[in-house]
């Protein structure tokens, strides 16, 4: 269930989600050539954290899926299972919006929500990336290892979520709360 911020029209929400797809895709493409394990550095996961928290799991999934498809198209190699894996990461990032009392659009975020945001981010990364690596291992994709293609990148992504994604969500919550109080 997507819980859109109450103050945004459907058109503004669609535009922002479109921008999320574009930013995620371009930022993934730009950092695709920086190695981490046998994969690449993906600080763009912060975009999934922020947009998923703001717009919900379906929107997070869509941004992860379409954004990764865009970056794969730009790089000239489409990896469908990894596109789906990034959709799963976005989906899990949005689960926080289903928690009682969480409404980022109004700045209603309790300290426990930040803990849950980290938990959902970690779970989504591990599930999505391990799932994709296992499918590649089963299908015989050469050079794939669970550690290099899933575990190490998931740990690095979790670092980005905790060190950058959660503080950005906290800043958005503070700003939104102040805006609601001024109304």
Write a concise synopsis of the structure shown:
This protein has 183 residues and is mainly α. Helix content is 73%, strand content 2%. The chain has helices at 10-31, 45-55, 57-75, 80-94, 111-139, 146-182; strands at residues 35-36, 39-40.
Topology diagram in text:
Layout: H1 10-31, E1 35-36, E2 39-40, H2 45-55, H3 57-75, H4 80-94, H5 111-139, H6 146-182
Antiparallel strand pairs: 1-2
Helix pairs in contact: 1-2, 1-3, 2-3, 2-4, 2-6, 3-4, 4-5, 5-6
Give structural notes.
The chain crosses the membrane at residues 14-31, 43-67, 79-102, 114-135, 147-173. This is ECF transporter S component. One of its GO terms (cellular component) is membrane. InterPro entries: ECF_substrate-spec-like. The structure is a single chain. This protein has helices spanning 10-31, 45-55, 57-75, 80-94, 111-139, 146-182; strands spanning 35-36, 39-40. It has 183 residues and is mainly alpha-helical. It has one domain (10-181): Arp2/3 complex 21 kDa subunit ARPC3. The protein has a two-stranded antiparallel ribbon with strand order 1-2. The longest helix is centred in the last third of the chain and has 37 residues, at 146-182. The radius of gyration is 16 Å and the shape is globular.
């Amino acid at each position: 269930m997507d819980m859109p911020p109450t103050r945004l029209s459907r058109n503004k929400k669609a535009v922002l989600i479109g921008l999320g797809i574009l930013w995620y895709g371009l930022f993934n493409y730009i950092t695709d050539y920086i190695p981490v394990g046998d994969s690449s550095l993906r600080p763009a996961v912060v975009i999934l954290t922020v947009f998923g928290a703001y717009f919900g799991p379906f929107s997070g999934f869509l941004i992860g899926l379409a954004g990764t498809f865009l970056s794969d198209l730009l790089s000239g190699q489409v990896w469908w299972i990894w596109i789906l894996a990034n959709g799963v990461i976005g989906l899990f990032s949005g689960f926080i919006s289903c928690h009682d009392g969480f409404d980022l659009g109004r700045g209603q975020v309790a300290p426990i929500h930040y803990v849950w945001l980290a938990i959902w981010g970690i779970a989504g990364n591990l599930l999505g990336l391990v799932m994709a690596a296992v499918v590649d291992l089963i299908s015989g994709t050469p050079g794939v290892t669970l550690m290099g293609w899933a575990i190490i990148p998931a740990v690095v992504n979790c670092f980005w979520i905790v060190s950058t994604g959660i503080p950005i969500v906290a800043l958005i919550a503070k700003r939104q709360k102040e805006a609601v109080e001024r109304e």
